Amino acid sequence: MVILDVRNISTTFKLRGTTLRAVNDVSFGLQKGETLGIVGESGSGKTVLCHSIMQLLPRPPADISGSALFGLQDLVSCSSKDIRNIRGNRISMVFQDPQAAFNPYLRICDQLIEPLLYHRRLSRRTAMDKVLSILEETGIPDPARRCRCYPHEFSGGMLQRAMIAMALITHPEILIADEPTTALDVTIQMQILQLLKSLQRQLSMSVIFITHNLGIVAGFCDRVLVMYAGQILESASGDDLFLHTAHPYTKALIRSVPSLHVNSGELYSIEGKPPDLTKEIKGCPFAPRCTYAQGECTEEDAAAGLVGVSHFTSCRRVLKGEISL
Amino acid sequence: MNYASRFFLLPVLCFFLISFHINCTSRTSPVDSGIKTGTLHFGNQTEPQDLDPQIVTGVPEFHILEALFEGLVILDPRTLEPLPGAARSWDITSDGLIYTFHLRSSARWSNGDPVKASDFLFSFQRILSPALGAEYAYMLYGIKNAREFNTSEISDFSRVGVSAPDDTTLVINLGKPVPYFLSLVAHHSWFPVHPATILKHGKIDTRGSAWTRPGNLIGNGPFKLTDWEVNRIISVEKNPFYWDSSEIKLSKIHFFPLENNMTEERAFRTGQLHITANLPPQKIAWYRENRPEVLRIDPYLGTYYYLVNVNKKPLDNVNVRRALSLAIDRKSLTDNLLKGGQIPAVCFTPPNAGGYSFEPTVRFDTTEARRLLAEAGYGPSNPFPSVTLLYNTSESHHLIAQAVQQMWKKYLGIDVVLLNQEWKVYLSSTQEKNYDIARMGWISDYDDPNSFLDMWVTGGGNNRTGWSNSAYDSLIELASITNNKEIRFGHFRKAESILLSELPVIPVYFYTNVYLLHPSVKGWEPNLLNIHNYKFISLE
Amino acid sequence: MKKPEPDNIAGNSLWKDATRRFTANRLAMAGLIILSVLVILCILAPLVAPWSVDVQNLSLGASAPGPGHLLGTDILGRDLFSRILYGGQISFAVGLCATLVSVLIGVSWGAVAGWAGGRTDAVMMRIVDMAYAFPFTIFVIILMVFFERSLLLLFAAIGAVEWLTMARIVRGQVMSLKSREFIDAAKGLGLSNTRIIIRHVLPNIAGPVIVYATLTVPAVMLLEAFLSFLGLGVQPPASSWGILIREGAEAMEEYPWLLIFPGTVLSITLFSLNFVGDGLRDAFDPRSSKE
Amino acid sequence: MITFITRRLFFQTVPSLFLIVTVAFFLIRLAPGGPFASEKSISPEVLKQLNTHYGLDKPILVQYTDYLKNVVRGDLGPSFKYPGRNVTELIAEAFPVSLELGVYALLFAILAGIGAGLLAASKPGGARDYLSTILSTSGICIPSFVLGPLLVLLFGLKLGLVNVSGWSSASDRILPSLSLGMVYVAYIARLTRGGLLETMVQDYIRTARAKGIPESTVMIKHALRGALLPVVSFLGPAAAGLITGSFVVETIFSIPGLGRFFVTAAFNRDYTMIMGTVIFYAIVIIFFNTLVDITQALLDPRLRSKLNEKA
Predict the structure, then answer these.
(1) Start-end of H helices in A54-142
(2) pTM summary value
(3) Does D40 map to a domain?
(4) Closest chain C residue to A61, measured at CA
């Protein structure tokens, strides 16, 4: 069952005469209980996409078209009051840098308690009990004492746990996790991921997991969108993406993951720069950097098609079967 | 968001509305209620230094002391002729050296004690005591040996020429005749103080004891002190023990220290004051036009003038000084700038000082001015060096200085630099003769030309010009020992003509006293000394 | 909001970038143009002014605006328009120079104190507290009396007073910056303190400093008027806007134009300064730009 | 926190007071014109008597040590200008008035300033932003010696709502507080706006929004606290400035406050009165600065833990 149906989202920023297309006609559906990964380099539009859906971008300068149906409501166009009732209640978010994402001037508990106070209208006392129990669940020792601390007194991993606790405290249907582990140590990363996974199962919620780290995607996501320059280039199940890669960009991304198994001396990196999003892009946005690119890739409109069961790619050459990756 | 800013802005608004509302509930102006209750609301410039008549020096202090004390004589509010005060009558010996005052047996202090002649002796001893440091002690120097006692040359007060043969007789022996003596005696430095009160709060010569506080202060005047809040108000009310209390029409006087004359004017306009001390010059035209009944312009015994440092080149040249004086268009200054009925100075002593008037001598004549300047050797080939015009910080001084600067530039081609100094700096600059030309003003404490002319004698404390003229000195000396009015004035006339031909001082204009007076105040007579005895004043 | 600005990766384009952003800001540009016009008019006063500054007409006195005198005349019958132009010379000079003095002293003092912390900070801020607590009237009187009275000294005196608040603000900013991550990062990289202050701290406090500086200019202009009021500022017949406004305030009921015109000119100047200040801040600090 | 305050009191306040007293004492004596200079010249004998009476004939170092001893004993000496009063008494009478005026003005400046700042920052670049910027900036453009009389003209003379001068009824507080506080409204509004804009782009604001809490709560609870730090550090000098800088307003409205004493004492060369007010103002200022530091620590937990570490 699709609980979030995103259709043709485009987000542009109009800034002093220039127009920047951060997200370009993106559509996807999120199944109940599913973990959807969105992968891409910095600036590929993953974060902007999620913020667009959640109305977290100031409009103007942002201009968002398309729709994101959540139940009967279109998140993109609903009133600010309606979206407020959804945010932190039915759809929660976890952000990248917990040190920055927590308000340094407020105690942890005062920040955690807010969703309950506003969405559940609980009394402070009962809300506080809930805060303590969810902190316990997310693995924070001695929550009664720790939750009276200020963010700067917490370590990064601890804070991210608290952040997850804050997001899940209202038992949302969807959790949007925006690079939740990027700012953390590798060992902590794994703990946080495991925590997320177990909580997801427990609460049977859907997760949109934004990351630039393909390694995480592999084990964690049911389905993956690969974004580049504001567009989805490939969409596949976690396994398909690695085993039946259907876009040169995905391929390049996979190759650039430093691997313990491959002993080739040099690390792979994609040559060139991402395209200038203030200019109109014709054809495949990756074409200028693509080793497989031909004239038609930039001359004609981008293609779109399936190469397997719910395995989408935008590479015309793969679709035509001219190349296999 | 709107909510957020409302959170902060609403209280501000509420505060406004509430406080305005509180105030909107019926108001009658103090002036109107004052008329009913006989309470005079008096704009009195500054907070008084003290209420000790033997220490204070200022005009605002005098306005209050006049209510609290009474001297041997008081001055007629219109003519300034001496009238009986604490003394019911007096005799003067024909040589003018011995004054015998007969005190009223009915005179009482505000606590009921009789006012005795010995109280006056005590008071004179007090003000002349060196340790008190009374700045106005010199007002009593006419008394034989008073100066000597004050400067510690003698220490036995009985040698000073005052005595009290009985409780109601006071004899004052002068060293030499002082024709304006009775005018001096009306000054607050001659006021009696209550010995028992002084001695209760200190010694006879203790400076600044608590005897002047409300509750402590005992006076012999028509009113007694009831309230003194610093920088807020001083209140006095009718003194039932005053010998003439049945004649007193006012029941209370409130003195307000309103330093800013704009504030004072606004207070008058909204009915908070019956009388102001001043009126800002720019307001005069409006009042003249719209409310002439409240505008008062009284002549005042004072001269505004420029001091010239005669030791400095090129001002040591008398022709230069004459040229500078001739090039000032005084009428234009008084008519266009001051607008307060001030009289262009035609001589140094203001007209009718103690009956003395000098013939018009000072003129405005640019041709003559240029001629004299050329005669002094200045012209296109030898340009006049730059001189500085010093004045102390005040709106009117700086306007006048700028206008005079322009006149000298226009008529004489002289460049004058203006120098504006803070009051005390300015005083020390003039005292140390560290100036070229400086603005000055002199307001007399008593009604006699002597006040204006004796300060220019060689080495006089107020003669900060460096000017010295032996003929002038001897004329002033001669006048001081002459009792005959006409002969005396003759000496003064000669002296003043020397002064005006030498011009160590360039007179500019004669002061007037410009203020606002509510029509309900009766008996407020214009006079040269700005003395208004509250005895004669009523509210109707 | 984080906005992708792909071209801004190179750090050395800060100035070029700032210029671009500033010129794109219409209000700031309008402010800058108005300011420039005013400054040029004032500098060219001897050429532009219809009347010489010291021409008086006592019998005319204060006259309302009319054909002969565009903005009317003052109590001495001097042309107000000309006086405003000449007064502007001094107001601008005092405002800009004194502000510069205060910014220079204040920023370096505050940055060093906030950065060094501990004992140094305590000592330096105690000096600021003491200077605050000091009766500045007397300080200025002494300065003005003991030394040759000059405009230069006026700048120094005012600047020396105005830097205190600047120092406190900068110190506060630096202290909170110090606890941010990127400073730790810079320290970790082994950069010297001076280098961190110049490269990382100062650019980050530019915003508050510029804002406060644009507030200091008017404060300085009015302080100059207050000083003149005490007889310690500009000597008549020279004048400044502050003096003109003060003179106008005394006669606001009788001769309102004496207050309105200088007041308007000063207000326009201050508003322009504000817009320019905002523009500058936004130009240097894209994060806080108007969105 | 308590250790912090006591440390501050003993190790910083006392030495800085001592320094202020010393510098002020000698600077004042350097200014030309003595306390007894007057237009009508005083005879040298009287001057000598006066100098002896106030101990001004002693060598300056002796005067200095005498003065210090008296101050430590809490005796600020007699006023030269007002011979019947001593300085402590005058300050005790006038300061509460200045304090009251200053507190009202500060309250007004804080409420109106933060309100205007919030309004401006809520929609930067919008009409409200410009309106509140213009209103608050006009506060800086209009000095108190213009604003005071203007307000009096409007509310006192034209509308007759309040008295034009004095300090007796409650409504007498309104116009002076407005005239005095107006300048600071602009400063606080601009600092608030700047601080808010700076804060509103922080990640934690986005977090707060993502929690779905109302925008006003985001502003007041989450953004304002960080945004107010620069405002708070400005409040120390502002409070001190309001309480010590009320001379003009006190004169215009004829308010019996300390500001008038302070300035007139300087012009009168009333040495003891100047020294008294200097010491007193120094204490007031140090007090407010300490208060600001404490408030800052209360607002910013990171700063607080630093202070605790030090103590």
Answers:
(1) 80-86, 98-101, 108-112, 114-115, 124-137
(2) 0.81
(3) no
(4) C291
For D233, which of C126, C132, C172 is closest by C-beta distance?
C172
Of A43, A58, A152, the CB nearest to C6: A43
Chain C residues bordering chain A (beta-carbon distance below 8 Å) = 1-4, 6-7, 21, 24, 179, 181, 291
Task: Please report the number of interchain residue pairs, chain B to chain D, with beta-carbon separation below 8 angstroms.
Answer: 195
CA neighbours closer than 13 Å in the CB half-sphere of residue A118: 26
pLDDT digits (tens, 9 = 90+) for B306-322: 999 999 888 999 999 99
Q: Name beta bridge partners: B80.
A: none
Compute CA C241 distance to the chain's CA centroid, rounded to the nearest angstrom.
14
Phi, then psi, of D222 in degrees rounded to 5: -95, -45
Contact present, C45 and C89 (Cβ < 8 Å): yes
Identify residue D208 by its one-letter amino acid code: A
CATH classification of the domain holding D145: 1.10.3720.10
- Which of D212, D302, D305 is closest, CB to CB, to A115? D212
In a domain? residue D132: yes
Residue B531 neighbours by CB under 8 Å, 6+ apart: B62, B66, B75, B77, B80, B186
> Long-range contacts for A250-255 (Cβ within 8 Å, ≥24 apart)?
A250/A226, A250/A325, A251/A325, A252/A289, A253/A39, A253/A214, A253/A226, A254/A214
With contacts defined as CB-CB under 8 Å, which chain D residues touch B50? 82-85
Determine the topology of domain C17-48+79-290 in CATH: MetI-like fold (1.10.3720)
Interhelix angle D14-30/C118-133, nearest 10 degrees:
40
pLDDT tens sequence across C200-240:
777 777 777 877 787 788 777 777 777 766 666 677 777 88
Q: Provide the residue ranges of all domains of chain C, joining segments of one domain with +.
A: 17-48+79-290
Each residue of A205-261: pLDDT tens digit? 888 888 887 877 777 888 888 888 888 888 888 788 888 888 888 888 887 776 655
A248's CB contacts (< 8 A; 6+ apart) are A286, A290, A291, A292, A293, A315, A318, A323, A325
Omega within 30 of 0 (cis) for the link into B257: no
The crossing angle, in degrees rounded to 10, of helices C136-146 and D14-30 is: 40
Q: How far apart (Å, rounded) are the C-alpha atoms in residues B183 and B193?
A: 19
The reply to whether residue A101 touches residue D301, judged by beta carbons under 8 angstroms, is no
Three-state DSSP class for A95? coil
The answer to whether the CB atoms of A103 and D208 lie below 8 A apart is yes
- The 3-state DSSP class for residue C167 equals helix
Contact pairs from chain B to chain C, CB under 8 Å = 62
The answer as to whether D217 is a domain residue is yes
**Average pLDDT value for residue range A312-320:** 81
Q: Checking DSSP bridges between strand A223-228 and strand B162-166, what pairing results, if any? A: unpaired
Q: CA neighbours within 13 Å on the CB side: how many for B527?
A: 20
Q: What amino acid occupies position A37?
A: G
Question: Closest Cα partner for B325 from B382, B373, B378, B358?
Answer: B373
d(CA B387, CA D80): 36
- Report how many domains make up chain D: 1
Which chain B residues are within 8 Å of D253, Cβ to Cβ?
263
In a domain, D47, yes or no: no
Cβ contact A106–D225 (<8 Å) = yes
Q: Exposure of C67 by Cβ count < 10 A (0-12 exposed, 13-18 middle, 19+ buried)?
A: exposed
Question: Is A17 an 8 Å CB contact of chain C?
Answer: yes
* Structural domain span for residue D262: 90-268
Mean pLDDT of B394-420: 88
Helix H, strand E, coil C: the string for B257-308 is CCCCHHHHHHHHHCCCCCECCCCCHHHHHHHHHHCCCCEEEEEEEEEEEEEE
CB-based contact, C58 to chain D, within 8 Å: no
D 193-222 → C contacts, CB under 8 A = 194, 197-198, 201, 206
Note the ipTM here.
0.78
Strands (E), chain C: none
